């Protein structure tokens, strides 16, 4: 083969390669352009999504802030209302307490007036219905004194008075001492503890009853001595002897209605 032929073939081959390279470059350019366009759309979509997300977050933040502000206002209003309510309740309680004290004071005053008026009525009419003591008994200060007919031993007397929710006669203070002396009682058992030894008479005094606490069933009364009153003196005798009985019990409260209503016939 001649050198010209060889050269021509090589030239032709080089020409074909160039043409293929140019075609290849053209294809790659088109492919690169399409890929770039696709990437651009993706970037745009992502950017739009990010923008929408940002806008959504701003809106949510705005709603949250507005809601928080509203709730804060409501909370402050509720707190103010609660404090005002507490002040009103405290003021009302104070007023109620003052009113209660006034009512108690007025009630006590009315009770005292009713009691004093009842005493005046009982002085005129011993069995007036306002009397806070059992029928037939005597009312003095805050106690009722009832004489019992007949005689009994000291223990029997204690048991009888106890059955009436009362106790044997005793002197609690100087006022009662003067009242008992004024009655000039003779031969009445007293609420004094039995003694083992016989004792000479003593002058009646409230001091004799200061530490007296006894239970009749705890003594061997057949060998002991019990006290009784004769005038202004206290004597001791065998507890099994029989003496007279006077029971004492606390007086009930005077009922205001009983004072106001008077006797059944309407008179006082």
Using the coordinates above, name the CATH class of the largest domain.
Answer: Alpha Beta
Spatially, the strands of the biggest sheet line up as: 1-2-8-3
- Counted up, domains total 2
Largest sheet: 4 strands, antiparallel
CATH architecture field of the largest domain: Roll
Tally of individual helices? 4
Unreliably modeled segments: 263-268
Q: Which superfamily, in CATH terms, is the homologous superfamily of the largest domain?
A: Mannose-Binding Protein A, subunit A
Helices and strands, in order, run as: HEEHEHEEEEEH
Structural class: alpha+beta
In words, what does this structure look like?
A four-stranded antiparallel beta sheet has the order 1-2-8-3, with helices on one face. Strands 4-6-7-5 form a four-stranded antiparallel beta sheet, with no helix packed on it. Strand 6 and strand 7 (233-238) form a beta hairpin. It is α+β, with helices and mostly antiparallel strands and 268 residues long. The chain is built from four helices and eight strands; from the N terminus they run H-E-E-H-E-H-E-E-E-E-E-H. The radius of gyration is 58 Å and the shape is rod-shaped. The chain has helices at residues 3-124, 154-163, 174-183, 256-261, and strands at 138-140, 143-152, 167-168, 186-189, 202-203, 225-230, 233-238, 243-250. Mean pLDDT is 81; it is low at 263-268. The chain has two domains: 1-93; 147-246, Mannose-Binding Protein A, Chain A.
